């Protein structure tokens, strides 16, 4: 997606929209947010691992970005700055909520097992693999999980991830290496099943 992604009839770049917002254009920030909301949501959801927490973190991030737009120095792309604001809001929420929330069980366990029995084997295996991977990711510390998600899931370069996370590229590489090593240990049972 280029800097000139169209939203309706507005062809302004992200930089132009942010500058227009700072200059007082009441619609510019809304257009900027609409342009990038899906990716911001994906980052918040993958970082928080809970839709309600992710929604709250994303809202806090967008309020912070709205208020602090004037402090954007232009040293990176606007999207990189927005991603960093989202990641920081997520990390702040995680720090505030040190106690992990319990995830509710399905309301009707009989119905869930009935549905599971009616699916194809490969779908069940993919679901089990996804659950195992999510559980393993949940056991990583926040720094490792954030680095892995940005590099391996979102496809950012090490330098872009370093900018978003506010650390050195070497730190991102180290977090990814440690996170991958821990994931390999946590998921070794999947290789043994093959």
3D structure, described in words:
This protein has ten helices and no strands. With about 190 residues, the protein is mainly alpha-helical. The protein folds into two domains: about 90 residues, Orthogonal Bundle (Rna Polymerase Sigma Factor, Chain: A); about 80 residues, Arc Repressor Mutant, subunit A, CATH 1.10.10.10. The chain starts with 13 loop residues before the first helix and ends with a helix. The N terminus is likely disordered. One of its GO terms (molecular function) is DNA binding.
What's the name of the CATH homologous superfamily of the largest domain?
A: RNA polymerase sigma factor, region 2, helix turn helix motif
Q: CATH fold name of the largest domain, please?
A: Rna Polymerase Sigma Factor, Chain: A
- The helicity comes to over 70%
**Helix and strand element order:** HHHHHHHHHH
CATH architecture of the largest domain: Orthogonal Bundle
Count of separate structural domains: 2
Mean pLDDT: 81
Largest sheet: none
Q: List the total number of helices.
A: 10
What share of the residues does DSSP label as strand, in percent?
Answer: under 5%
> What top-tier CATH class of the largest domain fits best?
Mainly Alpha
Shape: elongated
Which structural category do the helix and sheet elements fall into? mainly alpha
**Spans of at least 5 consecutive residues with low confidence:** 1-7, 99-103
């Amino acid at each position: 997606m280029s800097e000139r992604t169209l939203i309706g009839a507005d062809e302004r770049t992200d930089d132009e929209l942010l500058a227009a917002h700072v200059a007082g254009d009441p619609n510019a920030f809304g257009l900027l947010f609409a342009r990038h909301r899906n990716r911001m949501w994906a980052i918040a959801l993958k970082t928080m691992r809970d839709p309600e927490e992710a929604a709250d973190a994303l809202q806090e991030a967008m309020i912070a970005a709205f208020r602090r737009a004037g402090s954007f120095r232009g040293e990176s792309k606007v999207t990189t700055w927005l991603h960093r604001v989202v990641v920081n809001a997520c990390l702040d929420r995680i720090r505030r909520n040190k106690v992990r929330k319990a995830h509710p069980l399905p309301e009707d366990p009989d119905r869930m097992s009935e549905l599971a029995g009616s699916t194809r084997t490969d779908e069940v295996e993919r679901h089990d693999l996804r659950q195992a991977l999510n559980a393993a990711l949940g056991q990583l510390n926040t720094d490792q999980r954030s680095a892995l998600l940005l590099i391996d899931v979102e496809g950012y370069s090490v330098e872009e991830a370093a900018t978003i996370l506010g650390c050195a590229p070497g730190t991102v590489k180290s977090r990814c290496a440690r996170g991958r090593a821990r994931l390999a240990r946590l998921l070794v049972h999947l290789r043994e099943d093959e």
